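Hi F.,

I've been meaning to write this up properly since the lab meeting, where we talked about keeping a consistent format for the predictions we share between groups. The idea is simple: the sequence comes first, exactly as it goes in, then the structure tokens exactly as they come out, then a line or two of notes. No screenshots and no reformatting. I'm using this chain as the first example so we have something concrete to point to.
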Amino acid sequence: MILLTRKAEFSASHYYWNEAWSAEENARVFGKCANRNGHGHNYTLEVTVAGEVDAVTGFVVDLKELKDVMDREVIAAYDHRHLNLEVPEFRTAIPTTENIAVAIWRRLEEKISGAKLHRVRVYEMPDLFAEYSRD
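Output, unedited:
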């Protein structure tokens, strides 16, 4: 089996807020990240697929097709967006790096042909990442 990883970048804003808590509790737990005006990050996304090399094409997956899926399902939906306000999955989930990785997995899971989704890694630049896989 071969693991193949494709990278993409996007920029987005968000804030952390738990509707079940008071403003004071949100501020205590999330600090500056609880500012309802939001703040932004530059993210790097790594999507890793697993599969066997096709004897005819030499590919595990067509990299152009993988890029197109990532662009359509993630980049177009997240780039230069306020995640809390514009991305449906974050109307009810706090857009932490961890939840972003899980949400991206769900967006991509059934969309990649010819290979199995193996891992989604989201870097909140410059020094934090979250990784999601089912292995």
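Notes:
The chain has a mean pLDDT of 94.
Residues 51 and 115 are 5 Å apart (CA to CA).

If this format works for you, I'll send the rest the same way.

G.
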